[in-house]
Design goal:
alpha+beta
């Protein structure tokens, strides 16, 4: 399977919206929009983040099909990675390949990531890409309606 990243196109947004409304994916990601089904809020969010300077937003393609998104965002020295892969493609190495490509495109370090402590798959992806657990926190997870444990991970010093 060929994995590639490209800039986000307007035509990707309906696919992203569908992907971020899968109940199992939302629960696993935990830290999601308050109401993933609110299309107006979704569109406003994407309009805002696509306009921010310094944000690297990418569409993840698998054999040419849109299967998710990946991004680096935040202020210098505090930049974080995030990604979302359609559940139908979990367990195929796509998130790992996409994150590796993104990290090659954005060489600055350190980079940070956060993951729900019980999201073993996402933690595994981050660790395969060189991130290491550097802290623990608790945060309110919209998808679960409660505070949950999260892991803080760092790549580089």
């Amino acid at each position: 399977m060929e994995i590639a990243l490209r800039p986000v196109h307007d035509s990707d947004l309906p696919v992203f919206f569908r992907q971020t409304n899968d109940p199992e994916s939302v629960r696993m990601a935990a830290f999601t929009a308050k109401d993933p089904a609110d299309r107006d809020a979704f569109d406003a969010h994407w309009k805002r983040i696509r306009a921010l300077p310094g944000v690297v937003n990418r569409t993840v393609l698998a054999d040419g099909d849109v299967v998710g998104s990946a991004a680096v965002y935040g202020e210098p020295g505090e930049r974080e990675v995030t990604y979302w892969i359609d559940r139908a493609y979990w367990g195929k190495g796509i998130a790992t390949a996409a994150l590796r490509d993104l990290l090659a495109e954005v060489p600055e370090r350190p980079l940070y990531a956060r993951v729900a402590a019980d999201n073993a798959g996402s933690r595994r992806v981050l660790e395969k890409c060189g991130f290491r657990v550097t802290g623990h926190d608790r945060g309110f997870a919209n998808a679960r309606g409660e505070e949950i444990d999260e892991l803080l991970l760092t790549l580089g010093s």
